[in-house]
Design brief:
Radius of gyration: 19 Å
Structural class: mainly alpha
Order of helices and strands: HHHHHHHHHH
Helix content: over 70%
Distance between the termini: 27 Å
Shape: flat
């Protein structure tokens, strides 16, 4: 029993290395670039923390719901519903934040921080991917296995270190945001594949990742093309309405799940 507990604890500890990247990135950016890049990156990360609230909601709301109604191996109804609900709400928040990043940043900092704007959608959807990481890995939790989380966490942390060294010396805060997004994307893919090996399930992982990629691309295009405020407001309202309709539909389907 002690050996099994030790193995589970070591794997669970390694799984938490994903959060280590959130602290390691600033240290790496300082040593590979300069303090100005760190300041710009930190400001973008502060704005993107809006999406991190949805990641915390996964811990407080989604995980208890899934563990209560998780069902047996192959039953992905609870996990699929949780994943769809999170993806819709968090992606809407991330895209809305990216659309109005210029206005948000103008309230927080002077114009000299404008070059850091492009990092906002990248960091926002990196946080979005971390929420996906938690949900797709819950199958491993239902199976009592923490190794899938550990493997995915180590892969993501390794990618952060390597890509930071390659890209941030010239790219600064924007490159750092890109590294975080790409690394988190790969982490979700690895976690989903590893979790499925111990808890067979069919989840809309590809659709959720595509939704996040589309949100990231639209956010970056909005910051590049700089459309009018009215157009961005209309698009933001449309995103919120679509996400609201999706959440209402999922809420009505929640009653179909049989209680444990």
């Amino acid at each position: 029993v002690a050996t099994r507990l030790l193995a589970f604890g070591v794997s669970a500890t390694c799984a938490q290395l994903v959060s280590t990247a959130s602290a390691l990135d600033r240290w790496l950016l300082e040593h590979l670039s300069n303090l100005a890049a760190v300041a710009s990156y930190q400001l973008s990360a502060a704005a993107a923390s809006v999406v991190e609230m949805f990641e915390h909601a996964v811990w407080l709301v989604v995980e208890p719901f899934v563990y209560r109604r998780g069902g047996g191996p192959g039953d992905s109804s609870a996990l699929g519903m949780a994943l769809s609900a999170y993806a819709g709400a968090a992606a809407a928040a991330g895209l809305t934040l990216a659309l109005f990043a210029p206005e948000v940043m103008s309230l927080l900092a002077p114009r000299s921080y404008a070059p850091s704007l492009m990092a906002v959608p990248l960091l926002a959807f990196a946080a979005y991917n971390h929420g996906l990481f938690r949900i797709v890995g819950l199958g491993a939790g239902l199976a009592g296995r923490s190794k899938p989380w550990a493997v995915a966490g180590l892969v993501e942390l390794g990618m952060v270190g390597v890509l930071f060294v390659l890209l941030t010396p010239r790219g600064g805060a924007t490159a750092a945001g890109l590294v975080r997004y790409v690394s988190s994307l790969v982490g979700v893919i690895v976690c989903a594949r590893a979790a499925r090996s111990v808890w067979p399930q069919r989840l809309p992982v590809a659709r959720s990742l595509a939704l996040g990629a589309a949100g990231t691309l639209l956010g970056c295009l909005s910051l590049t093309l700089q459309p009018s405020f009215g157009l961005r407001l209309a698009l933001g309202a449309l995103v919120v309405v679509v996400a609201g309709v999706q959440l209402l539909r999922l809420y009505s389907e929640r009653r179909k799940l049989a209680p444990c």
